């Protein structure tokens, strides 16, 4: 009879529990998982994953960016390739599912396909990207940029906390960083890229849905604001004469919160504050803070930026404070391909789940992969939306739902190409 979707999902759960122990931490339950790029933990994870891939009938290779790529090959060597996968690396003391779940669920799908001797008219590549989080070298999206052909060789000079360069780490890992440009997928070779990821938010759980379809990956911008006032004795300067930089910062925080709560598909935060001279009885002279805005629609984000900066300047001028402002980071939003969104929605519906479309407020490897091909994405619900934390949790039964949805998606993709599944 062959492996069922439920059994494939259960196997994915076993794999998740096993690979969570491949970590710098001793106890992933209490301390979380720490697995960084080009480390012995990375090597051990690839050894495990590579073995499971071979057991599922895949050929396996590691490229010069330390990505692991398993291929479930089509009978046609010239066929195009559907790419699935996610990142194997974590943040320090992260959860057991962020990233790695998106490697193991496609692998469970291949296990199902191989067990049922189902051939596809396209190659199916499952990728464990080397470094999405950027924890060790601040090299965010290293692996996906390598495959998409957008990796900047300048990044090879980045150093970790011990002074080891990314170039040296890759060499020690057995890679040849000078040949990274050779590892991109050829133009036109990829059918598309599909990633499965925990939602990292509470919406699916709140709606009682195991799975959702992602419409876009958010655009992000970050600002550094320095508010200048005048220090003085907190007991002798009258309130109406004060130029208190921290009071100005409080106004900024309120303006960010108000704008984001009244603008659809916009979120933001003041995440970091430094106050000077930071004395208990001294009026603050300078306060530095960061402002981050995110939206899946760049037009919404840019309009919000202009509105916010105008309101901040007016508020600080009224307090007789001076503002210095710098845009320190900007990443445009990436829209998932409408055709892939529709096909994923149909696959979700075919498996008895009401399709729910939502945008991703976090960045993912699709930000880089969109330079190569169309991208699509599925979210799996997670408990209370907790992520990047040891308390990250999912429902084991949801894994079999994803395997079934991915199978339906692949079958429909094969049929749509007028190349029926064997």
UniProtKB/TrEMBL annotation:
Zn(2+) 1 binds at residues 87, 98, 197. Binds 2 Zn(2+) ions per subunit. Its cofactor is Mn(2+); Zn(2+). GO terms for molecular function: hydrolase activity, acting on carbon-nitrogen (but not peptide) bonds, in linear amidines; metal ion binding. Keywords: Hydrolase, Manganese, Metal-binding, Zinc. Pfam families: Peptidase_M20. Signal peptide: none annotated. The keyword Metal-binding applies. Allantoate binds at residues 222, 281, 294. SUPFAM superfamilies: Bacterial exopeptidase dimerisation domain (SSF55031), Zn-dependent exopeptidases (SSF53187). Zn(2+) 2 binds at residues 98, 133, 388. Homodimer. Belongs to the peptidase M20 family. PANTHER family: ALLANTOATE DEIMINASE-RELATED. This is Allantoate deiminase. It comes from Franzmannia pantelleriensis.
């Amino acid at each position: 009879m062959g492996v069922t979707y439920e059994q494939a999902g259960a196997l994915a759960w076993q794999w998740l529990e096993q690979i969570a122990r491949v970590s710098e931490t001793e106890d992933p339950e209490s301390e979380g998982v720490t697995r960084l790029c080009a480390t012995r933990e990375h090597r051990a994870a690839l050894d495990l994953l590579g073995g499971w891939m071979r057991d599922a009938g895949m050929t396996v290779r590691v490229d010069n960016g330390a990505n692991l790529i398993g291929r479930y090959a089509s009978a046609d060597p010239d066929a195009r390739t559907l790419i699935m996968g996610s990142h194997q690396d974590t943040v320090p003391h992260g959860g057991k599912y962020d990233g790695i779940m998106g490697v193991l669920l496609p692998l469970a799908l291949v296990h199902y396909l191989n067990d049922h001797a189902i051939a596809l008219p396209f190659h199916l590549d499952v990728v464990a990207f080397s470094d999405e989080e950027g924890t060790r070298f601040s090299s965010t999206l290293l692996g996906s940029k390598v495959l998409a052909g957008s990796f900047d060789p300048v990044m090879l000079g980045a150093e970790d906390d011990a002074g080891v360069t990314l170039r040296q780490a890759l060499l020690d890992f057995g890679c040849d960083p000078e040949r990274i440009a050779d590892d991109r997928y050829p133009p036109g070779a990829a059918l598309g890229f599909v990633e499965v990821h925990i939602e990292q938010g509470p919406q699916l759980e709140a709606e009682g849905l195991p799975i959702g379809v992602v419409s876009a990956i958010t655009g992000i911008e970050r600002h550094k604001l320095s508010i200048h006032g005048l220090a003085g004795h907190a007991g002798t300067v009258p309130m109406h004469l004060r130029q208190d930089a921290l009071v100005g910062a409080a106004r900024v925080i309120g303006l960010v919160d108000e704008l984001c709560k009244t603008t659809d598909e916009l979120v933001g935060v003041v995440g970091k504050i430094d106050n000077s001279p930071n004395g208990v009885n001294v009026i603050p002279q300078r306060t530095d803070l960061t402002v981050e805005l995110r939206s899946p629609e760049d037009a919404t984000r840019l309009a919000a930026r202009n509105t916010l900066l105008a309101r901040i300047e007016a508020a600080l001028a009224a307090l007789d404070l001076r503002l210095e402002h710098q845009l320190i980071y900007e990443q445009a939003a990436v829209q998932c391909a409408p055709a892939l969104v529709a096909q994923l929605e149909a696959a979700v519906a075919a498996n008895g789940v009401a399709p729910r479309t939502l945008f991703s407020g976090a960045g993912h490897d699709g930000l880089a992969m969109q330079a190569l091909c169309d991208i699509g994405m599925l979210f799996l619900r997670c408990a209370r939306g907790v992520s990047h934390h040891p308390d990250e949790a999912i429902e084991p039964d949801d894994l079999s739902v994803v395997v079934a949805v991915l199978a339906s998606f692949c079958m429909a993709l094969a049929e749509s190409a007028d190349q029926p599944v064997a």
